[in-house]
Design brief:
heterodimer, A: mainly alpha, 20 helices, elongated, B: mainly alpha, Leucine-rich Repeat Variant, about 80% helix, PP2A_Regulatory_Subunit_A (chain B), Serine/threonine-protein phosphatase 2A 65 kDa regulatory subunit A beta isoform (chain B), protein phosphatase regulator activity (chain B), ARM-like (chain B)
């Protein structure tokens, strides 16, 4: 149009569109659990002597008393209240951590319920609402737990307790039961990554030591995932739970139970559909590969599942899918490969011709993988015809020169692999395209005729044309 | 299944059915969407014997295709031969109701609910109810969740023995092992209760409600709250206390904020359901607690309900309850730490004045309005200002004008342009309430300042605002107060401001009328046709086109036409374009 005669209007300094990164700088959010309903009253704890200062006989009793004291909860959102007592509880917890780590003979049977009670009082709480509605885990800082100075020590103590040599699951299972585990699993939704990290260790220890709880834990994780996939799309601890599952799957006995296979197909595969896949994809792919290494016969359903949920609009996810497929192909058995090569390479052929160069590039990298190359070579009769049209077209049409170069390499590799077939495909390329076009036209005709038909029918049913 | 009978019209159908198997999802989808056409062409007989079995057996497809199929089948009754044959649609819908994808399943359930109405009572018992029972005892949770939505549609029309069976199945689902199923059951509990006989509501539904409301998962408990409201509407007043109130009280104090939030969110419905007496004894204290909840989410949800709750209080004690129980909480919320809470309150607090009357408003509410008008969060102030009309009716706006003015000025200059935009939109309303004198004295300068805002959206809104003000105050007022200022900007050194003059003229010419437009505005527009900035020149052409209809034909011919003709020969192509467009629209060629 034309140039402006004056200087452009000054920029709004504090506009509504401030960048997230700028905004973020000042928010160091922390949050307390939803359990404090202004208690008002200050908390008084009577200081007890140190455990090391009393005789060995008195220690177990004092240990119990200290556990009971640590059940008192403080409001950390109020940074000024109960300062002295907060510090006292902190040092007591520290002392307890040391005590369970080194002392011998402290774990009397009476201690178990008290330990579990203290831990339950401290860690089990309703998680507060997430601060922003559109919390984006990749962009936003997580909300940190305000009571962490105490909470961390409680977790630390609990882990030492579970790992202690004196720890006896047969006694503990009376207190660490299904209800306990259920509440523990709910905490994995905590936004604080430090807490989730501790929870991971705790759950792992419990899974390891309580055989009776294993099936229950797996089932509840199942439910959490299904809810995450089909209902809420929000759960902070998916990556951590998958990490635990990774090692659980590793320990599955062969042949795999139907329950485990169902978990793979009905839960793990659908997890790929979630919007926030990038946050737990590495752990998920690890679980999938673990399954396939256990039982190669699962390859076909897994790959078909991935193909079914293949992302249609999200290129970033497509790149992740391609990465996972490569991991799967790395461990695939040739007999399994033959079963899925056709649908698989139809998808790869689509990816190769994606206008998004990262997707095309990621797919073309398969040809740098020696094992995959050997599989392709063995089956070039099937794969080459599927891939050829896309490759040939991109070599002429793709906007990105790097992609074109990669495609040339792939075409060259195919030519070396199976030159008679390659020549044949090159020579029939044109006529094939023409045939395709003709088919396309026929289809259009068909739809047109159908519309006419529909029109006639509806006129008939309206009684305009007598039947 | 191709149309082998030589009927030519069936040929495309055969191909379409082939397309249902095509590799390309989009083509399959197209084909599925034409399913009714296919069925129509095949006729009812072959649709039943060939098409439906084909769909039931061979469709294992992408969710998108399944969704389209589930939807289509819901309106297929005519195509299979009417109500008599409607049960033929059940098998494909049954398998669709078991798939994983929620959207598909929900659609299948929706279609099943729809066609259930088309079943005869006998068919319902012979075909539909067995399907519901199969789904209810399915292996995977998906079919059991789907089943939950089907009980209420078949229950009213079956025999009493089948009814007992249905109730039994629903009971089982309410205590299902999988939380997903319990959630589905909890969310359908209210709906199911509505179709049950009152005795069974008491004997069956109440225990289920109590159990779900104390489920270990808060996601189940919160759904039970909604069911509780529906159930309460069904019960006679004298049974409420014994059957549901304990559970509802417990929900209002649940340890999970999500459940408490739900109670707050459903509070008005709850209030209606339990009636005035229980409201007085139970809901008032519960509401107070929710307003004082430790979680901001809950407080905000409760604050949103303040108006409706107060309105619906029994008349005899309304004022006392508000003054002694609700108002103290409201006073605290005015200085809440969370801006969403304050903002929710600000959007309803003004309407309390209509309920409390003049004296109470002046004494108790006015101070709160004033505090909120000075709140640090602009949204709170905006919400107060946008509800001024309620107060206006009761005490008149004058009482507030002293505080109103600084608040408006501050919002008008807020750093966020969206806030400025919002306050501009209330200007005409405010002007109407405050009267022309007050406006001229205090607000006029603001309205003019917006015209030179550096955000276009604000300048645009300001222009529109002027038009609305003129509609309110009349052309004479316009001529005296705003037209001179607007026209003065035509000489500004900033071309954006000069353009604003043109935009204002576009907006004002019609409301100001022919005389002002011809005498005052037109000369300015014409003069600007020689502006050095092309953007101004082509906007002159557009303005002339816009104000042309207001002018008389002599002005058009004598003054507008020559200028447009000159612009039509401008160097700049956009100027030319708009000049020619104006010439043709005004028929000056």
């Amino acid at each position: 149009m034309s140039s402006a005669s004056t200087t452009p209007p000054s920029v709004d300094k504090v506009d509504g569109f401030s960048r997230k990164s700028v905004r973020k700088a000042k928010q160091k959010r922390s949050q307390s659990s939803s359990q404090f309903r202004s208690q008002g009253k200050p908390i008084e704890l009577t200081p007890l002597p140190l455990l090391k200062d009393v005789s060995a006989q008195e220690q177990p009793d004092l240990f119990l008393k200290k556990l009971q004291q640590c059940c008192a909860l403080f409001d950390f959102m109020d940074t000024l209240s109960d300062l002295k007592m907060k510090e006292y509880k902190r040092s007591t917890l520290n002392e307890l951590v040391d005590y369970v780590t080194v002392s011998r003979g402290y774990l009397t049977e009476q201690a178990y319920p008290e330990v579990v009670k203290m831990v339950s009082y401290n860690i089990f709480r309703t998680l507060p609402p997430s601060d922003s509605n559109e919390f984006d885990p990749e962009e936003d800082e997580p909300t940190l737990e305000a009571s962490w100075p105490h909470l961390q020590l409680v977790y630390e103590f609990f882990i030492r307790f579970l790992e202690s040599q004196e720890f006896q699951p047969s006694i503990a299972k009376k207190y660490i039961d299904q209800k306990f585990v259920l509440q523990l699993l709910e905490l994995f939704d905590s936004e604080d990554p430090r807490e989730r990290d501790y929870l991971k260790t705790v759950l792992h220890r419990i899974y390891g030591k309580f055989l009776g709880l294993r099936a229950f834990i797996r089932k509840q994780i199942n439910n959490i995932f299904l809810r995450f996939v089909y209902e809420t799309e929000h759960f902070s601890g998916v990556a951590e739970l998958l990490e635990i599952l990774g090692s659980i799957i590793n320990g599955f006995a062969l042949p795999l139970k139907a329950e485990h296979k169902q978990f793979l197909v009905k839960v793990l595969i659908p997890l790929h559909t979630v919007k926030s896949l990038s946050l737990f994809h590495a752990q998920l792919a690890y679980c999938i590969v673990q399954f396939l290494e256990k039982d190669p016969a699962l390859t076909e359903p897994v790959i078909r599942g991935l193909l079914k949920f293949w992302p249609k609009t999200c290129s970033q996810k497509e790149v992740m899918y391609l990465g996972e497929l490569e991991e799967i192909l790395d461990v695939i058995e040739p007999t399994q490969f033959v079963k899925i090569q056709e649908p698989l390479f139809k998808q790869i052929s689509k990816c190769v011709s994606s206008p998004h160069f990262q997707v095309a590039e990621r797919a073309l990298y398969y040809w740098n993988n020696e094992y995959i190359m050997s599989l392709i070579e063995e089956n070039s009769n099937v794969i080459l015809p599927i891939m050829f049209t896309s490759l040939y077209r991109i070599s002429k049409e793709h906007w990105n020169p790097a992609i074109v170069a990669l495609v040339y390499n792939v075409l060259k590799a195919f030519m070396e692999m199976n030159s008679p077939l390659f020549d044949e495909l090159t020579s029939t390329y044109k006529s094939d395209r023409q045939r395709e076009k003709k088919k396309e036209k026929e289809r259009e005709e068909l739809w047109k005729r159908l519309e006419d038909l529909e029109l006639k029918k509806s006129l008939q049913s309206d009684g305009i044309i007598p039947t | 299944m191709a149309g082998a009978e030589g009927d030519d019209s069936l040929y495309p159908i055969a191909v379409l059915i082939d397309e249902l198997r095509n590799e390309d999802v989009q083509l399959r989808l197209n084909s599925i969407k034409k399913l009714s056409t296919i069925a129509l062409a095949l006729g009812v007989e072959r649709t039943r014997t060939e098409l439906l079995p084909f769909l039931t057996d061979t469709i294992y497809d992408e969710d998108e295709v399944l969704l389209a199929l589930a939807e289509q089948l819901g309106s297929f009754t005519v195509l299979v031969g009417g109500p008599e044959f409607v049960h033929n649609l059940l098998p494909p819908l049954e398998s669709l109701a078991t798939v994983e994808e929620t959207v598909v399943r929900d659609k299948a359930v929706e279609s099943l609910r729809k066609i259930s109405q088309e079943h005869s009572p006998v068919d319902l018992e012979v075909h539909f109810v067995p399907l519901v029972k199969r789904l209810a005892s399915g292996d995977w949770f998906t079919s059991r969740t789907s089943a939950c939505g089907l009980f209420s549609v078949c229950y009213p029309r079956v025999s009493s023995s089948v009814k007992a069976d249905i109730r039994q199945h629903f009971r089982t689902l309410c205590s299902d092992d999988t939380p997903m199923v319990r959630r589905a059951a909890a969310s359908k509990l209210g709906e199911f209760a509505k179709v049950l006989e009152l005795d069974y509501v008491k004997s069956d539904i109440i225990p289920l409600f109590t159990a779900l409301a104390s489920d270990e998962q808060d996601s189940v408990r919160l759904l039970a709250v909604e069911a509780g409201v529906s159930i309460a509407t069904l019960l006679p007043q004298e049974d409420l206390e014994a059957l549901v109130m304990a559970t509802l009280r417990q929900a209002a104090e649940d340890k999970s904020w999500r459940v408490r939030y739900m109670v707050a969110d459903k509070f008005s419905e709850l209030q209606k359901a339990v009636g005035p007496e229980i409201t007085k004894t139970d809901l008032v204290p519960a509401f107070q607690n929710l307003l004082k909840d430790c979680e901001a989410e809950v407080r905000a949800a409760a604050a949103n309900k303040v108006k409706v709750f107060c309105e619906n209080l029994p008349e005899d004690s309304r004022e006392t309850i508000i003054m002694t129980h609700i108002l103290p909480c409201v006073k605290e919320l005015v200085s809440d730490t969370n801006q969403h809470v304050k903002s929710a309150l600000a959007s309803v607090i003004m309407s309390l004045s209509t309920i409390l009357g003049k004296d109470n408003t002046v004494e108790h509410l006015l101070p709160l309005f004033l505090v909120q008008l000075k709140d640090e969060c602009p949204e709170v102030r905006l919400n107060i200002i946008s509800n001024l009309d309620c107060v206006n009716e009761v005490i008149g706006i004058r009482q507030l004008s002293q505080s109103l003015l600084p608040a408006i000025v501050e919002l008008a200059e807020d750093a966020k342009w969206r806030v400025r935009l919002a306050i501009i939109e209330y200007m005409p309303l405010l002007a109407g309430q405050l009267g022309v004198e007050f406006f001229d004295e205090k607000l006029n300068s603001l309205c003019m300042a917006w015209l030179i805002d550096h955000v276009f959206a604000i300048r645009e809104a300001a222009t529109c605002n002027l038009m609305k003000l003129v509609e309110k105050f009349g052309a004479v007022w316009a001529q005296n107060t705003i037209v001179p200022k607007v026209l003065g900007m035509a000489n500004d050194s900033n071309y954006l401001h000069r353009m604003t003059t043109l935009f204002c003229i576009n907006a004002l010419s019609e409301v100001c009328g022919q005389e002002i437009t011809t005498k005052h505005m037109l000369p300015v527009v014409l003069k600007m046709s020689t502006d050095q900035v092309a953007n101004v020149r082509f906007n002159v052409a557009r303005s002339l086109q816009k104000i042309g209809p207001v002018l008389d034909s002599s002005a058009l011919q004598a003054e507008v036409k020559p200028v447009l003709e000159k612009l039509a020969t401008d160097q700049d192509m956009d100027v030319k374009y708009f000049a020619l467009e104006a010439i043709s629209v005004l028929a000056l060629a």
